[in-house]
Amino acid sequence: MLKAEMIKKGMIAMVVLGAVLVLAGWRYGALQTTRYDSREAEESLRSLLIVSDQTLGRLDKLVVKWQGDWIANGENPEVIAAQIAAQLNMPAVNRGVENGHTVYRSVRDSKNLNIRLNMMERQAEQWYVVVQLDSSDAGREQLVRLHKLCAKLLKSVGVQAQWNTAFQHSLHSGKSVNQLMKLTEEGLSTKLSMKAKERYTDATTAAVSYEAPELPLSIQSGEHRIHMQMAVHEDGEEHNTRITLGFPLITIEY
């Protein structure tokens, strides 16, 4: 029991690390951070979906996170939050307080696509905005359209936004996580010039970070430039295996 708990904590720690690195403002590629071009944002996401489609298993989950700073400069943050929610066809925002900071939230759930908006006060006049799009494979085209809209919308209201994405596949297999990792790497390497740079393994999980210059998103990790992170995780409770791809990092639990 103790060993299983330690493995679970290690898995979650890697996901939390990826989230912290993104939230800390590590610099992504220029395409992602400086041009806010909705057409290029769409093309980049579609190129990553092509990579995902080469992966073993059934695509179950697609997640895109847009996030960044917003400086009020005298504007009303509630009005901006309401404007974002309205443009994304979400319910009216709710105001809350967490740890002494104001938060505006809205959630829209549907069968194939969920949207979450959080606008969190950091300090006077400074806010952090997160828009998360979460879909099944059936909702991928709707997700791509909303992703394109986010690129335009967040720029229009002054959010200095970046984005990252993750895709999760599932399969039933008698192969070990290391065997599945090798098979997936072999399949993807026919399309990408990818080099493993960082690796983590335990009894039920293998996770590797890669340099793959053809991919549109990247992050600096020590001396390495990372474009993709992949994890293969055996879920004993569900009796299946999940393969998760993160660009440039995995920021969802696998």
Provide a compact summary of the structure.
The protein is an alpha+beta fold.
Describe the structure.
The protein is elongated and about 55 Å long. Strand 3 and strand 4 form a beta hairpin. The chain has a domain of 102 residues: 2-Layer Sandwich (TBP-like). It is of the alpha+beta class and 254 residues long. The strands form two sheets. It has a ten-stranded antiparallel β-sheet, with helices on both faces. A two-stranded antiparallel ribbon has the order 9-10. It contains six helices and twelve strands. This is YwmB. InterPro entries: DUF1779, YwmB-like_sf. It comes from Paenibacillus brasilensis.
Keywords, separated by commas or semicolons:
disordered N terminus, ten-stranded antiparallel sheet, alpha+beta, DUF1779, elongated, 254 residues, TBP-like
Strand order, sheet with most strands:
2-3-4-5-1-6-12-11-8-7
- In CATH, what is the class of the domain at 62-163? Alpha Beta
Shape: elongated
Which bin fits the share of residues in helices?
Answer: 25-40%
CATH superfamily of the domain at 62-163: YwmB-like
Structural class: alpha+beta
Through-space gap between termini: 20 Å
Number of extended strands? 12
The helix/strand series, from N terminus to C terminus, equals HHHEHEEEEHEHEEEEEE
Strand content: 35-45%
